[in-house]
Amino acid sequence: xxxxxxxxxxxxxxxxxxxxxxxxxx
Length: 26
Description:
Elements: H1 2-25
């Protein structure tokens, strides 16, 4: 149960990081 949750959290974090990078670029 904790494994899938952690995986989803990492995915969300990566997406947020990408969005932040795009925001800075803009």
